[in-house]
Amino acid sequence: MREASEVDRLSSRLEEAAGPITLKWSTSRSSPDASTMDRLAGTWRLVYSSGFNSGSLGGSRPGPPAALLPTVLGQVYQVIDADKMLLDNVVELLLAYGVPQLPFLPRPDPQPIPGLRVTLRHTYEVAQPNTVTIVFESTSARAVGPDMLQGLPQFDVPQLPDFLKPPKDIRSAAFDVSYLDASMRITRGDRGELRIYLRDRPLEAQAPADYVD
Length: 213
Prior knowledge:
By secondary structure, the chain is mainly beta.
């Protein structure tokens, strides 16, 4: 589509202007600004993926059914811990129609949309100069939305024993970090997917009000 080609063109210009990226620690950990690994770490919100022809994954988009209920895809994040070499892909699945309102009851204040925040945990390795290879390890989920859901515990999906897990090459994927600054990151995946991220607040700091429809 025209939009996808235009975003790709503009991303390429930005990548060329910034020059090649090399992911490495600085010689002094007391100077994080000089370290691309420190800059890589943090919470990143996905704002564009060429895997979706219409572009941005931010906001509400049609999503897969969950428990036979219609859902929309909410925000998508990538949370990177450079010290522990962990990368979480976080996806929010929200009920498409929110909480039903009974006609004979007073209309309450706007309520956050109930849903699930699903975390796909990966370990990762960096191959010079800028290739990140991730290996899937586990899945967890927790409820988001109204206050009554906030106290529910996180659910960890049972994992297979190590000897029954598929080989790492089946559980892995890779992407190149082609642009990186303090607030934006561009990656190009091993399947040709272009993704653009903006730095965001830590997920723990995101208040339930963020989910109000």
